[in-house]
Amino acid sequence: MKVSFLFPTLLISFLLPVLAFGQNDSTMIKKDTAVHIIPDTVPPKKDTTVVIQTTPPSCYKQWSDVFAERGAKPVTDGMQDVVIAFKNAEEYHCFMGRVEVIGGKIKAPLYVQTENGEYKTFASMGKKLDPEFVAASGDQLWKITDGMSALFKTADNEYGRLFFYKFVSKGGNSNKAAPSPSDLIKD
C-alpha cells in the first residue's frame, strides 16, 4: 500500500508549486484609464486629383482600326510589304515583313525584316502555323480581304494577321455627314 500512495504524493508535491506560481493577484495589476481613439478611416484631402491610367492601344488594334475605318484597295500581285501583328492573352507584337501575292492570295513563305534591313523567314523566328488551324481554315487562310490577311494561329497559341499597309485607302471610308440646312441651301 505504501507504493500506491507514493506516486500521487510525488505528483502533488511537484505540481503544487507550479500551480501556485502561475496564479496572479489581479488587485496588483494597474489598469490603463487613458482613452485611445484609433480612427478606422482617414478623411480624404480636399483638392485631390484622380489620375486614371489607360492602357495604350495595342499595335494590333491600331492597325485593325485603321483598316476598318479607311478600307483598302485590292492588293496587286508581286512581293508586298506588310505589317505582321501577333497577339496573345498578355502581349502584342508587330513586325515589318514581306510576302509574295499571286492572284489575290498569299504565297508562303512569309519574311520578317530584321533590324539591319535583311529579311528572314517566319520559320526562322521559331514560329510556325498551327497545323490543325491550317487544316480547318483551308484555302481561306491565304485569302486577302480589305488589305488584310485572314486571322491565323501559330503553334504556340498566338494569333496573327498581315496588314498590307501600302494599299490602305487614303481617306476615310465612313459616310460624310450632311451640313446644316443654312449651309447647304442658299436663298
Short description:
Helices cover 24% and strands 24% of the residues.
Description:
- The protein is α+β, with helices and mostly antiparallel strands.
- It has a domain at 74-167.
- It has helices spanning 2-22, 59-70, 131-137, 181-184, and strands at 78-87, 92-102, 105-113, 119-121, 144-145, 148-149, 152-153, 159-163.
- A hairpin with a 4-residue loop joins strand 1 (78-87) and strand 2 (92-102).
- The chain is flat, with a radius of gyration of 39 Å.
- The chain starts with a helix and ends with a helix.
Secondary structure layout:
Layout: H1 2-22, H2 59-70, E1 78-87, E2 92-102, E3 105-113, E4 119-121, H3 131-137, E5 144-145, E6 148-149, E7 152-153, E8 159-163, H4 181-184
Shape label: flat
Major sheet attributes: 6 strands, antiparallel
Counting DSSP E segments of at least 2 residues, the number of strands comes to 8
Number of distinct helices: 4
Sheet-strand content, in percent, reads 15-25%
Spatial extent as radius of gyration: 39 Å
